[in-house]
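Re: the request from the purification team.
They wanted to know what the chain is likely to look like in 3D before they choose a buffer screen. I agreed to run a prediction and write the result into the notebook, where they can find it.
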Amino acid sequence: MCTLALGWQLFDDAPLVVAANRDEANGRPAEPPSLYREEPQAIAPRDGRAGGTWIGYNEYGLFVGITNRWVDREGDRSRGQLVADCLGYASATAAIEHVNRAVETDHYAGFNLVVADLDRAVVCEFDGTLSVTDCEPGVHVVVNVGADGSYFEPTARPAVGRQQAANADRLRAALQPDTSETAGEWLDRASEALGNHEYGVCIHGDGFGTHSASLISLTRVDDDLDDRYWFADGPPCRTPFRRVESSL
């Protein structure tokens, strides 16, 4: 997944909302979101090759999502397995503690990892060294070259990196909430932006492109998790979002 927008502690009706596109090589198999694990229960799509996932949330209201980070670094363990591991924890703090241990014991390619619950949101950037940044309430956009206006130029593709950074800034500006906007209205706007080629985050390349998109809303109602997930099983420019039937 190459673009992830997080709205955190902005809306009373849903303090955690996410809109994200997944970019992947054509032909790489994937299963749509469903019950990914039992203990704790988690909803996520599944990578058909490595078995991990790129986005999901669990019964505790913990959200986890990942993008590749364009650095020259190979990994022995799938980054999607790290996401799956994090979905086994009850809080963002516990998941981040796991990430700190995991990068010491396993070898991963570069990644940008977003871990958030209703109390804490964190962006982890890993290029051989792990950087952990707590998010303030607001809209945060993460792409392959960084997050929230702090980007780097990848050595192998500097021009593409600069363009992706510009796309991320444009998307983040467009997704700033209106004063009276609800979480549902924000997600409606976000769904349109994910498929609008003017923002450059829905891509169609030679052998590579945007293969799916996710919209997620999490809140608590009387101590129960109110979770809602809409999934486009194809490029969001031409694929409708459908409500995921599995819920927690």
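For the purification team: The mean pLDDT is 96.
Please add any questions underneath this entry.
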